[in-house]
Amino acid sequence: MRHLEWEDLGVKVDGRSLHHLRFADDIVLITPNIEQAERMPAEFDSACGKIGLRLNLTKTMFMKNGLVPSADLCE
């Protein structure tokens, strides 16, 4: 995560950029728009691959806040 250049991504909370939350064996990527929702998982998967990890796409889910207008997600 430290090597990803995501300073311009995510949402602002108290003046700081929030783009992910880490849990024991899960991660939540936080984006304000569909463009970032498409970009961030691809970059994260690439960074994981560099250290021998990979995303399990069958367990990957997309969720949206009810206040955000609907948008189609593309693979």
From TrEMBL:
Reverse transcriptase domain location: 1-75
PROSITE patterns xrefs: RT_POL (PS50878)
Pfam families (UniProt xref): RVT_1
Protein's name according to its UniProt entry: Reverse transcriptase domain-containing protein
Originating organism: Haemonchus placei
